[in-house]
Amino acid sequence: MHKRQFLKSAASFGALAFGGSSGLVPARARAQASTQTLITNVQVFDGKADDLTAATSVLVEGDKLKAIAPNLDAPAGARRIDGGGRVLMPGLSDMHVHLQWNQDPFTLMRTRQDYVAALTLAEAEATLMRGFTSVRDTAGGVHGVARAIDEGLFPGPRIQGSHASLTMTAGHGDFRNRNVGTRKFGGPAESELELFGLTRHADGVPEVLTAARDNFRQGANFIKMLVGGAVTGLYDPLDIAEYTPEEIAAVAGEARRWNTYLSVHTYTDLSTKAALEQGAMSIEHGNLMTEATMELLVDKGAWLSTQTGIFLIPLPDGFSDAQKARQQQAAEGLDNMMALAKQYGAKIALGADLVGSPVEKAKHVEEFTARTTWFSNAEILKQATSQNGQLWALAGPRNPYGDTPIGVIEPGAYADLLIMEGNPLEDISVMTKPEENLSIIMKGGVVYKDTLS
Q: Amidohydrolase-related domain: from which residue to which, for each copy (predicted)?
């Protein structure tokens, strides 16, 4: 099963793989071995088609998918799993998570960094056990956590991260007390949230360029910039435009020079349009954009990274009436935005954007049913698999996992797969109960949960 086991053979390699019922295997040995798993008698949703295949077999070799065909065989000694006619699909991905935000921001600012790291690792494991094998962290100092997961020390999804989000003074990422001055007016060199790698205060072209470059120094795979007002911000009403076109263009250009892209937080039409015009390639939210701006997004080939559940559930305790009113305003824009996105054929990614306690984070899976107002079950599943995989690939050479595809069941893709009870193409609510319905969770050929063997 997926529960952490005690250290074995640590002296040999110093990193472990949580291999489920296959036992505990040193990570480097696993990477070098040509292990095989044969899964038989499954109906496959491949991440792209609208329907399931007939009963078939899937062969995994190492960390990748080797073959998908009826009546496959594998050498003696290969692990064998009988799917019993169940549905097999790609591991899920989420393009807008905050693995580090497991407390409200004011509690987090008073918390030791090592405890925050422990909570982040716990949330990473919980995310994997909900079936998410790859995530894009859009603001947070999580590259150390990603390294620990990649080395096999802890279970969790693959992580692409932006490191700190860039915020202007009084912008979405500014949670400083009003009695604390800015750096230029006698304030501290770094705020508490900057120390965690969650945000970076930067004003003017020179500062935003330095901030972007420092993020790349810290291992960022893309850049996140907060260019519009927010639901949960302290000082920025939802309607304001944050950062000038010159500042946005400077960061977009820097991201291009690093052969990756700029992602931006924005709700209003004004700030969304400005970001697209200056070179942003991923719009996070965008709820209040107009038809002309949606057309611009499609013309630019940019992505619309959408979240729905966060606007449809009550904000956790501690948020003000003003913040709750902004949430309602953002929610009211969803219908128009989603209709326009479908009308213009926008590239739609799926994310959740949940922050707060583990109780709030557990609502992650409700994103599937929340989207049924606008999309078919097949469309939602494609968003969470193959379409998210395309946005994942946009990081190009800054993608730490190379050009191996995610979110699809095809030869050469990462062996990330789920076997489940029920058919999510017919009833997507099965995705909201992963503890009950996910029988197999595999990431990179390693089984983290197995209730079938």
A: 87-447
